[in-house]
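Weekly modeling sync, notes
Attendees: S.R. (lead), two postdocs, one rotation student

Agenda item 3: backlog of single-chain predictions. S.R. asked that every request posted to the team notebook include the full sequence so nobody has to chase files. The rotation student volunteered to paste the first one in as an example of the format we agreed on. Action items at the bottom.

Example entry:
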Amino acid sequence: MKWLLLLVPALLLAQFHRAEQDREIRYWLLDPSTHKFLISHDFTVTRPGQKSVHSFVRKGSTVSPDSKMSNLDTGEPLHTHIVSGKEVNALGYYPTPTDPDSVVVQGDLPKPVGAGESARIRVEESYVDPVGYTLQNRELVWTRTLGRPLNFVTLPEGWKLTSVNTPAVITLDPQGRVTLRFTNPRAEELSVTIKAK
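Predicted structure, as returned to the notebook:
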Protein backbone atom coordinates (compact mmCIF):
# COMPACT_ATOMS: atom_id res chain seq x y z
CA MET A 1 0.00 0.00 0.00
CA LYS A 2 2.88 2.36 0.82
CA TRP A 3 4.40 2.00 -2.67
CA LEU A 4 1.01 2.77 -4.22
CA LEU A 5 0.79 6.09 -2.36
CA LEU A 6 4.22 7.02 -3.71
CA LEU A 7 3.34 5.92 -7.24
CA VAL A 8 0.16 7.99 -7.66
CA PRO A 9 1.85 11.45 -7.39
CA ALA A 10 4.59 10.26 -9.78
CA LEU A 11 2.01 9.19 -12.36
CA LEU A 12 0.17 12.48 -12.06
CA LEU A 13 3.42 14.37 -12.54
CA ALA A 14 4.29 12.33 -15.62
CA GLN A 15 0.97 13.30 -17.21
CA PHE A 16 1.67 17.00 -16.70
CA HIS A 17 3.41 17.90 -19.96
CA ARG A 18 5.91 20.73 -19.65
CA ALA A 19 4.16 22.66 -22.44
CA GLU A 20 1.41 23.31 -19.88
CA GLN A 21 3.80 24.73 -17.31
CA ASP A 22 3.64 28.32 -18.65
CA ARG A 23 1.87 29.39 -15.48
CA GLU A 24 4.34 31.55 -13.57
CA ILE A 25 5.81 35.03 -13.96
CA ARG A 26 8.07 37.04 -11.64
CA TYR A 27 8.47 40.79 -11.25
CA TRP A 28 11.23 42.60 -9.35
CA LEU A 29 10.47 46.27 -8.75
CA LEU A 30 13.48 48.61 -8.88
CA ASP A 31 13.78 52.15 -7.48
CA PRO A 32 10.33 53.68 -8.17
CA SER A 33 11.87 56.98 -9.26
CA THR A 34 13.17 55.10 -12.34
CA HIS A 35 9.70 53.57 -13.11
CA LYS A 36 11.65 50.39 -13.88
CA PHE A 37 11.06 46.71 -13.05
CA LEU A 38 12.42 43.35 -14.16
CA ILE A 39 10.36 40.45 -15.50
CA SER A 40 11.20 36.76 -15.92
CA HIS A 41 8.96 34.04 -17.31
CA ASP A 42 9.27 30.72 -19.13
CA PHE A 43 7.32 29.17 -21.96
CA THR A 44 7.50 26.15 -24.26
CA VAL A 45 7.48 26.19 -28.06
CA THR A 46 6.15 23.09 -29.86
CA ARG A 47 5.12 24.37 -33.31
CA PRO A 48 7.05 22.44 -35.99
CA GLY A 49 9.09 24.76 -38.20
CA GLN A 50 9.05 27.71 -35.78
CA LYS A 51 12.36 29.58 -36.07
CA SER A 52 11.87 32.35 -33.48
CA VAL A 53 10.11 33.01 -30.19
CA HIS A 54 8.46 36.17 -28.93
CA SER A 55 7.60 38.22 -25.88
CA PHE A 56 4.91 40.84 -26.49
CA VAL A 57 5.41 44.24 -24.84
CA ARG A 58 2.32 45.90 -23.38
CA LYS A 59 1.35 49.27 -24.76
CA GLY A 60 2.53 52.04 -22.42
CA SER A 61 5.64 50.14 -21.37
CA THR A 62 9.11 50.48 -22.86
CA VAL A 63 11.30 47.40 -22.93
CA SER A 64 15.06 47.70 -22.57
CA PRO A 65 17.10 46.64 -25.62
CA ASP A 66 19.23 44.38 -23.38
CA SER A 67 16.42 41.81 -23.01
CA LYS A 68 17.64 38.21 -22.89
CA MET A 69 16.19 34.90 -23.99
CA SER A 70 17.76 31.50 -23.45
CA ASN A 71 17.01 27.87 -24.24
CA LEU A 72 16.61 26.14 -20.87
CA ASP A 73 17.12 22.73 -22.47
CA THR A 74 20.65 23.57 -23.62
CA GLY A 75 21.56 26.69 -21.61
CA GLU A 76 22.25 28.44 -24.91
CA PRO A 77 21.47 32.18 -25.17
CA LEU A 78 19.36 33.21 -28.16
CA HIS A 79 20.12 36.16 -30.41
CA THR A 80 17.53 38.64 -29.10
CA HIS A 81 16.31 41.81 -30.78
CA ILE A 82 13.27 44.09 -31.11
CA VAL A 83 10.79 43.67 -33.96
CA SER A 84 7.35 45.06 -34.79
CA GLY A 85 4.00 43.36 -34.43
CA LYS A 86 3.69 43.52 -38.21
CA GLU A 87 6.85 41.45 -38.62
CA VAL A 88 5.60 38.86 -36.12
CA ASN A 89 2.20 38.61 -37.81
CA ALA A 90 3.92 37.90 -41.13
CA LEU A 91 5.47 34.75 -39.62
CA GLY A 92 2.03 33.20 -39.06
CA TYR A 93 3.02 31.49 -35.79
CA TYR A 94 0.15 32.73 -33.65
CA PRO A 95 -3.62 32.26 -34.17
CA THR A 96 -4.44 35.78 -32.98
CA PRO A 97 -2.58 38.63 -34.71
CA THR A 98 -1.01 41.32 -32.55
CA ASP A 99 -1.17 45.08 -33.10
CA PRO A 100 1.03 45.73 -36.17
CA ASP A 101 2.55 48.79 -34.48
CA SER A 102 3.33 46.99 -31.21
CA VAL A 103 6.83 46.25 -29.92
CA VAL A 104 7.89 42.61 -29.64
CA VAL A 105 11.07 41.04 -28.29
CA GLN A 106 12.22 38.26 -30.62
CA GLY A 107 14.67 35.44 -29.88
CA ASP A 108 16.06 33.48 -32.83
CA LEU A 109 16.34 29.71 -32.37
CA PRO A 110 19.53 28.04 -33.63
CA LYS A 111 17.35 25.69 -35.71
CA PRO A 112 13.61 25.38 -36.39
CA VAL A 113 11.56 23.27 -33.99
CA GLY A 114 11.28 19.75 -35.41
CA ALA A 115 8.18 17.56 -35.50
CA GLY A 116 7.60 16.10 -32.04
CA GLU A 117 10.23 18.40 -30.53
CA SER A 118 9.95 21.34 -28.17
CA ALA A 119 12.10 24.13 -26.78
CA ARG A 120 11.78 25.55 -23.28
CA ILE A 121 12.53 29.29 -23.32
CA ARG A 122 13.29 31.74 -20.52
CA VAL A 123 12.70 35.47 -21.03
CA GLU A 124 14.40 38.11 -18.87
CA GLU A 125 13.42 41.72 -19.55
CA SER A 126 13.49 45.14 -17.94
CA TYR A 127 10.59 47.53 -18.44
CA VAL A 128 10.03 51.23 -17.88
CA ASP A 129 6.39 52.10 -17.17
CA PRO A 130 5.97 55.75 -16.07
CA VAL A 131 2.18 55.32 -15.84
CA GLY A 132 1.88 52.01 -13.98
CA TYR A 133 4.91 52.38 -11.70
CA THR A 134 5.17 55.70 -9.90
CA LEU A 135 6.27 57.48 -6.75
CA GLN A 136 3.42 59.48 -5.17
CA ASN A 137 4.05 61.47 -1.96
CA ARG A 138 7.11 59.28 -1.27
CA GLU A 139 4.95 56.15 -1.64
CA LEU A 140 5.66 53.47 -4.24
CA VAL A 141 2.58 52.68 -6.38
CA TRP A 142 2.65 49.76 -8.85
CA THR A 143 -0.51 49.02 -10.86
CA ARG A 144 -0.73 46.21 -13.38
CA THR A 145 -3.03 43.47 -14.66
CA LEU A 146 -1.64 39.98 -14.11
CA GLY A 147 -2.59 37.25 -16.56
CA ARG A 148 -0.73 34.20 -15.28
CA PRO A 149 -2.20 31.78 -12.71
CA LEU A 150 0.83 32.37 -10.45
CA ASN A 151 2.45 35.82 -10.16
CA PHE A 152 5.29 36.93 -7.86
CA VAL A 153 6.13 40.59 -7.21
CA THR A 154 9.20 41.56 -5.17
CA LEU A 155 9.52 45.08 -3.74
CA PRO A 156 12.80 47.01 -3.88
CA GLU A 157 15.17 46.50 -0.96
CA GLY A 158 14.18 48.55 2.09
CA TRP A 159 10.56 49.12 1.02
CA LYS A 160 7.71 47.90 3.25
CA LEU A 161 4.24 47.04 2.02
CA THR A 162 1.52 49.51 3.07
CA SER A 163 -1.43 48.17 1.04
CA VAL A 164 -2.48 45.78 -1.70
CA ASN A 165 -5.96 45.70 -3.21
CA THR A 166 -6.31 41.94 -3.64
CA PRO A 167 -5.37 38.91 -1.51
CA ALA A 168 -1.72 37.87 -1.64
CA VAL A 169 0.66 35.61 0.24
CA ILE A 170 3.40 37.85 1.66
CA THR A 171 6.89 36.52 2.41
CA LEU A 172 10.51 37.68 2.45
CA ASP A 173 12.99 36.52 -0.19
CA PRO A 174 16.53 35.40 0.76
CA GLN A 175 17.69 39.04 0.57
CA GLY A 176 14.94 40.14 2.98
CA ARG A 177 12.85 41.87 0.31
CA VAL A 178 9.04 41.72 0.57
CA THR A 179 7.55 39.35 -2.01
CA LEU A 180 3.85 39.03 -2.85
CA ARG A 181 2.42 35.90 -4.45
CA PHE A 182 -0.86 36.29 -6.34
CA THR A 183 -2.82 33.21 -7.40
CA ASN A 184 -5.41 33.74 -10.11
CA PRO A 185 -7.50 30.66 -11.00
CA ARG A 186 -9.95 32.71 -13.07
CA ALA A 187 -9.91 33.17 -16.86
CA GLU A 188 -9.80 36.98 -16.67
CA GLU A 189 -6.78 39.03 -15.65
CA LEU A 190 -6.21 40.14 -12.07
CA SER A 191 -5.96 43.91 -11.51
CA VAL A 192 -3.38 44.61 -8.81
CA THR A 193 -2.31 47.82 -7.06
CA ILE A 194 0.59 47.62 -4.62
CA LYS A 195 1.69 50.48 -2.38
CA ALA A 196 4.81 50.62 -0.21
CA LYS A 197 6.97 53.04 1.79
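Discussion: group reviewed the output briefly. The chain has two domains: 20-35+130-197, 38-128.
Action items: rotation student to repeat for the remaining queue; S.R. to check formatting next week.
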